[in-house]
Amino acid sequence: MSLVEIISAVLGLSCVFLAGRGSKYNFWVGYVYNIFLFVLFWRQHLYSAMLLQPVAFGINLYGHWRWTHPKEGEANSSGDLKIGRMRTWQWVNLFTVVVLGGLLWAKALQWLPERWPDVFAPDPQPLLDSFILMLTLSAQFLSARKYWECWIVWLVVNVANIVLYIASGLYIMPIVSLLYLANGIWSLVSWKSKYNRNE
Description:
globular
């Protein structure tokens, strides 16, 4: 257990707590959280999770802009982006991207240590790590669009992360993921209620 893991846990819990309550301030915490996770996952040789962080930082920037600058007809009574829902074709696209992207990235994770063994240690769980990467990117993108379904994807991510973190020898992050799971269930219900109220 390291100080980086402890700080990452606190930042992550703060970020999802704020996101679950629809607070745009979750993005500010998220920026710092991405930096700490990058360092943490580099140390654990979880390269998908590590490489996710710069991309996640960019998605956070996009989400921050979308939440605070809704297009005409997308604003709630506070002037922020209101909660939306996905269409069937978006689910099909999401599934396709996750499956194909996950398989391709898993192959890359197996190839990297062979190509540059001095830089990359073998990923302990390349397939699981890869699919979690794709699901996390999808959940973050859906969160940035403020779609209610983001919480369904986050629940899957959190369960998978618990398995990955335990297998990788992390101590605090599995507990954090359990708390994320609880927050995700609460947020799923809360956002549905807000969606029904057109918020």
